[in-house]
Amino acid sequence: MAAEAEVLDELHRLRARVPQLTGALAASVDGLVLAHDTPGVEPEGLAALTAAALGVAVRMTDAAGRGELRELLLRGDQGYVATYAAGSSAVLTLLAQDRVNVGRLHLEGRRAGGRIGELMDALPGPDETAATTAKGVARSAARSVARTAEGTTVAPTPQPPVKATVRSTMPRRTPRPATPRPTPRTTPNTPTTSES
Fold first, then answer.
1. Where are the domains of the chain?
2. Which residues does the annotated region (Disordered) include (predicted)?
3. Which fold has domain 2-122?
4. Enclosing H/E stretch for 71
5. Which of 17, 29, 33, 47 is the most exposed place for a label (fewest CB within 10 A)?
6. Cα(92)–Cα(35) distance, rounded to whole angstroms?
7. Integer Cα distance of 30 and 39 in angstroms
C-alpha cells in the first residue's frame, strides 16, 4: 500500500530530525501496526500496548474533565514513551532516550502525528471501499443491460448513491457538566510592624 510507504518515510524523517529517538511506530487505535521503525522492539506488542494505554488515557482525561486526549507521555529509567494522536484512526508512538529534549520531542511528534493523520484519514475505510466496489459493479451491470442486440442503448435508471458509514473505534465520551470552582479568598495586604 502506498500510504504505508509514505508513513514509513515520515517515521524515518522524524528519527533523522530527532536523533535521540530510538524507535517510532504508527498504529491504528485498535492496536494494529501500520508502519514501524523500532529496532530491538517487537512492533506488534508495542502497538497492542499503545492501544491499551490509549484506552486508559482516554478514560482518565474524560474522568478528570480535561477534554479530548491529545498525547500521552511516560518516563522510565531509560527514556520516554510518547504517544500522539494521528488523525481519527491512528496513533504515533515514539521511543526516546532519557536525554531527549522533551519540548522538541513534543514539537516534532505533534507535527509528524498530524502528517500521518492526514495520510491515514485520506485512505478509504473498509466500508467505503466496499461501497465503491458495489457502485462500480452496479454501474457495469446497468451499462450491460442498457445495450440491446440492435446496438442501440437505452438510458439506465439512475442508481441512488450508496452511503458508507465509517465508525470510529474510539469510545464515545459524554460531556460532563462544568462544576463551578470556588473563588479564592484574598486578604488585603496589611503592612506588618515590628516593634524593636
1. 2-122
2. 141-196
3. Beta-Lactamase (3.30.450)
4. strand 71-76
5. 17
6. 10
7. 22
